[in-house]
Amino acid sequence: MNSMLGSTAELAVLIKLKDELTGPLNNIDRSLTGLNTKAATVSGGLSKIGGGLALGAERVAVGLIAVGGTLVTVAAKSTEAAATYQSAMELIHTQAGATQAEVDTMGVSLLALAPKVGTSATELAAGLYHIESAGKRGAVALEALTIAAEGAKVGQSDLEETATALEGALNTGISGTESMSAAMGTLNGIVGSGNMRMADLTGAIATGILPTAKSMGLTLTDVGAALADMTDQGIPAVDAATRLRMTFSL
Known about the structure:
Layout lengths: L1 H32 L5 H6 L7 H16 L4 H23 L5 H18 L3 H13 L4 H18 L3 H14 L7 H14 L4 H8 L3 H7 L4 H13 L4 H13 L1
């Protein structure tokens, strides 16, 4: 009987809380709906970069569950985003060769950069992985990532693919890559001129066409113009790059 009374009292309290919180929770829920791309940034800002990141988000999730059911889904997504972001940053340390100090510093920088370029921190981390893998560190890596993020927005392309294409071009030292921003502009121009997407251009660069073209005295624009013309004729970018590279070698 006492157990039943206790359950009834708890139910009454929960109903009262739900009535009082329905309006505010709905307003918060509507506001959060438009912030999906910033989920990792919001989650990441709740605690320090590193081991406490996911734990902090989990505590927030528990707190939201205690307040009411409306935000449970949002809290779960927030926790998941925090864990994904933490994992992406850890890869930069374990696979890209960056020190833990570099990862911690860049982690803070990415959280600040995300709202400026309109890209989630997790996407930025994925792009940074390729830049750090190529040996860039600190301010230079952040500059390359920023330019890649801006280029991805302009070209409506995937950031990770864009960062890979940019870094691939920069590392060859071919004429036209002296400036990161100029190189990014040329890469977007190549995609826009030809029948391809950034992923196709990334695949074309991976064939090794740029170092071969450089040895022949050609520029990034020269190669891009040839790729654009060939893809406009229906030749896949990778096939076009392979044929051009073999022609240069001959």
